[in-house]
């Protein structure tokens, strides 16, 4: 199965709006207890999440996985720091690339692949305000063209 494919559970809609995504990478997530059940139910919010390299390991911050409804008192903390599973060579490359000015690791989507929860993280460079405006204009123009073609048919 290609990278990024599978049963998509959640998308970070602001990732492509706020960043130029230059490269993507698939990573596994270390989960506790009932977190996978909540992910399969789609109870994930990626709004303000980001990844960071710390002591040779990659961690995902601010990913909100809601507690499982049928869980017990040992449910997980919703916004805890979660470790991402990557190869050493991938982590070493990420360390070098994120130390450049303006680059950061952005989670793009969470999906289920072969029964495991995976995260597609992207190496992104932050957009300026005028870049965001330009993207919105381009989207609107494409919508107008598609609408005009639809009306013409």
Give a verbal description of the structure.
The structure is a single chain. The protein has helices at residues 15-18, 35-40, 88-98, 129-152; strands at 7-11, 19-29, 44-45, 50-54, 57-61, 64-65, 82-85, 103-113, 116-126. With 153 residues, it is of the alpha+beta class. The chain has a single domain, classed as Small protein B (Small Protein B, Chain: A). The chain starts with 6 loop residues before the first strand and ends with a helix.
Instruction: Write the element-wise H/E pattern from the N-terminal end onward.
Output: EHEHEEEEEHEEH
Overall pLDDT score: 88
Main sheet specs: 7 strands, antiparallel
CATH fourth-tier homologous superfamily: Small protein B
How many individual helices? 4
pLDDT < 50 stretches: none
Strand portion: 35-45%
What overall form do the CA principal axes indicate? Answer: globular
CATH fold call: Small Protein B, Chain: A
Q: What topology, given as strand order, has the largest sheet? A: 1-8-9-2-7-5-4
Spatial separation of the terminal alpha carbons = 37 Å
Helicity level: 25-40%
CATH architecture annotation name: Beta Barrel
